[in-house]
Specification:
- The structure is a single chain.
- With 118 residues, the chain is α+β, with helices and mostly antiparallel strands.
- The protein has 4 helices and 5 strands.
- The strands form 2 sheets. Strands 3-4-5 form a 3-stranded antiparallel β-sheet, covered by helices on one side.
- The protein is globular.
Length: 118
């Protein structure tokens, strides 16, 4: 599993500082699993293609790749090749803008410390 998160989304104390610190800490623990990679898009990257909404790309050995797109009022699954290819390109761009996994864990650990101070 590969995830890209924006730094701002990890710093905003939704549900309170303690709860958010616990959630980000959980992500750092999750990222230590061998089949999980979490990349953080640093706050310095103000505009990026992930701002248009969340999506998930699911690849299977015995079935077509499927994308799940989340919008404000709808959720869409598609295996339409052009849509999937576009989202795969978008994912590549997001990863290119992101910190590497080690830097991402380091940043998330720092965010946990920042949220825990107040």
């Amino acid at each position: 599993m590969l995830c890209a998160h924006g730094e701002y989304a990890l710093r905003v104390p939704m549900g309170g500082r303690v709860g958010m610190a616990q959630q980000v800490h959980h992500l750092t623990q999750f990222a230590e699993r061998p089949n999980v990679t979490i990349n953080v898009i640093p706050a310095e990257v103000v505009a990026h293609p992930g701002l248009t909404g969340a999506f998930v790309i699911m690849s299977f050995d015995d079935a077509p790749t499927v994308a799940h797109i989340e919008a404000r009022t709808a959720r869409i699954f598609t295996d339409e090749p052009r849509a999937v290819a576009f989202l795969q390109q978008t994912a590549g761009k997001l990863l290119a803008l992101s910190l590497n996994p080690v830097e991402s864990i380091r940043l998330m650990t720092s965010i946990v410390e920042d949220l825990s101070r107040a």
